[in-house]
Write a structure and sequence with these properties.
Layout: H1 2-5, H2 9-64, H3 68-75, E1 84-91, E2 97-102, H4 114-118, E3 127-131, E4 134-142, E5 157-166, H5 168-220, H6 234-315, H7 320-363, E6 369-371, H8 373-383, H9 385-390, E7 394-397, E8 403-405, H10 407-423, E9 432-440, E10 443-450, H11 481-491, E11 495-501, E12 505-513, E13 521-522, H12 524-527
Parallel strand pairs: 6-13, 7-9
Antiparallel strand pairs: 1-2, 1-5, 3-4, 4-5, 6-8, 9-10, 10-12, 11-12
This protein binds adenosine-5'-diphosphate.
Length: 533
């Protein structure tokens, strides 16, 4: 039935209506034709019966009175009946053929039952039967006059009349009837077809109209069009529902457009704000560094001058009491203050340089390339070689799959992670840092694992936030390293997550895009930077 499903609704309806009409016509016609053919046959049988009965009555008297010549005139009337072809009269005693008439001589024709009757092998019956192409009537001839189909009371059979009638007129009548019925049938089929084509429109046209409007909406995405409701039937309900749906779609589309407009506006605003913020961070961190360098420089200068002053004091002629007071100020007070100034400025310097790096990640345009990560990690381990030796760190790098990104930023990101693994090592055991990598579908996955202090569950997300540190008193960092990592990850459409347990160690897992066939490979050793740059 799949072929039928692909028909247009017009053709489907026409086919359905035609099929139903044709089936009912076929059943009705078959019934009428069969019953009419039966009636025609019955009529012929009855007519032949009547003709045979009257002829038998007419022949009976000449036979009974032994006047065979009279039979001829008795039979005469049936010659005028066109379909009667032969009439034979037999005597009962001798079973001889007394008289015979044939419309057309046919020597090959054998009268059924007669030879068996003449041989005594069968009796004849008062009957009219169809055998082959003919209708055969056998009628007894009674000694007494009989004006009916039934045998007269006390009558004796004196002979038999045999009449042969052709069934050609019956066949002709039937075939003419069938031809007429076929013509009527064909006429009805044609009328039914035109009516089906006409009436299917009542259902198909509104549906086709709906389909064309739907197609129009699909092409133009114009939800302002409507279908014209015509009736109150199910199609009317469908139209109403369709129009209603279009109205809702229109409203939603408007709302969506407005929301998108608003989203665009907010995005632009956000981008603007972000740029402003980055600019502020950049300017602040960059510009603050020069006065800071001055403060650092002059503090050192001051330290030097104090030392000089101390030496001068020692050599000059100054009262002992005053000398003791100066000594205290020069040896204790001022160096103490200078120490604090210097440590604060270097802390501030580190903070500002971290902020500067963070702002640079967002500000610089990134060119993306296919990166050989094994090469990149050779460079990172060279940069950290001194620290590894100094901290007796077991550092290992497994074979790493390549990835797609900006080599400078990827280098910085992994440098920060290795640097953290070094910084947050457990003082009670030999530090072990390993880097592994593998591929998953279209991603390159890397894992930087250490056996350091570990990070409690509740901090694992927060450590990526700006300035978030687990031990703020710890002088080792500024709370910016992982923020930079996160920002680089965001710019590379990557992902980072932590698996860690306090006291056991941490795993930083990074997912980055795999290399692209179209992108050229990059030689990381020529243009990369280390974390500390
Ligand atoms: P910083 O190291 O400068 O403090 P980060 O943003 O790099 O800043 O890290 C934030 C905090 O996350 C760190 O202060 C540290 O407490 C914790 N952390 C980061 N990496 C590790 C690590 N590998 N093991 C344990 N703690 C870590």
């Amino acid at each position: 039935m799949k072929w039928f499903q692909n028909f247009s609704i017009k053709n489907k309806l026409t086919v359905i209506m035609l099929t139903v009409a044709l089936l009912s016509m076929a059943v009705g016609f078959t019934f009428i034709i069969i019953s009419n053919i039966k009636t025609f046959t019955k009529e012929m049988l009855e007519n032949t019966h009547i003709i045979a009965n009257y002829t038998a009555d007419a022949c009976a008297t000449p036979i009974a009175f032994n006047q065979p010549d009279e039979v001829k005139s008795a039979i005469e009337p049936i010659r005028s009946v066109a379909y009667i072809e032969s009439a034979y009269v037999y005597q009962l005693d001798t079973k001889d053929l007394l008289w015979k008439w044939d419309r057309k001589e046919n020597p090959n024709f054998i009268t059924p039952f007669i030879s068996e009757w003449q041989n005594g092998q069968r009796d004849l019956k008062n009957e009219v039967v169809f055998i082959g192409e003919y209708l055969h009537a056998f009628k007894p001839l009674y000694s007494t006059m009989n004006l009916g189909a039934k045998a007269p009371v006390d009558a004796e059979i004196v002979g038999w009349l045999y009449i042969r009638a052709s069934r050609a007129p019956l066949d002709k009548k039937i075939s003419e009837y069938l031809r007429n019925m076929s013509l009527v049938g064909i006429g009805l089929i044609v009328i039914t077809y035109f009516l089906a084509v006409r009436f299917q429109r009542v259902i198909s046209e509104p549906i086709l109209n709906l389909a064309s409007v739907t197609e129009k909406i699909r092409i133009t995405s114009d939800y302002s069009v409507r279908v014209k409701k015509e009736g109150k039937d199910e199609i009317g309900i469908l139209y109403f529902g369709f129009n209603n749906m279009l109205e809702q779609l229109q409203v939603r589309e408007k709302q969506r457009d407005e929301a998108m407009e608003e989203q665009k506006r907010l995005m632009a605003e956000l981008e603007e704000k972000n740029k402003e913020l980055e600019q502020v961070v950049y300017v602040t961190s960059h510009d603050l560094r020069s006065p800071l360098v001055n403060i650092q420089g002059f503090s050192k200068e001051l330290d030097f001058s104090i030392k000089e002053l101390g030496e001068m004091l020692n050599s000059g002629d100054i009262p002992q009491e005053l000398r003791t007071q100066f000594d205290y100020i020069l040896q204790e007070d001022i160096p103490d203050s200078l120490k604090y100034i210097l440590s604060s400025t270097s802390k501030m310097d580190a903070l500002l340089s971290g902020l500067l790096k963070l702002s640079r990640v967002g500000r610089t345009a990134t060119t993306l390339n296919n990166i050989d990560m094994n090469e990149l990690f050779t460079e990172i381990s060279n940069a950290f070689e001194f620290h590894f030796k100094e901290g007796n760190v077991a550092f290992s790098v497994g074979p790493l799959p390549p990835c797609y990104g900006n080599d400078v930023q990827i280098n910085q990101m992994f440098s920060n992670l290795v640097s953290n693994a070094l910084k947050y090592r457990d003082p009670n055991r030999t530090p072990v840092i390993s880097v592994k990598g593998w591929e998953e579908q279209d991603r390159a996955i890397y894992c930087v694992e250490d056996n350091g202090l570990g990070i409690a569950k509740e901090h694992q997300k927060k450590i990526f936030e700006i300035f978030h540190r687990l031990n703020p008193g710890d002088s080792q960092g500024e709370g910016l390293g992982l923020t930079i990592v996160n920002k680089i990850i965001g710019r590379h459409n990557g992902k980072i997550w932590v698996e860690s347990e306090p006291g056991a160690g941490s795993k930083f897992i990074i997912s980055l895009p795999k290399p692209r066939a179209s992108a050229p490979p990059v030689n990381t050793t020529s243009d990369s930077v280390s974390k500390n740059s």
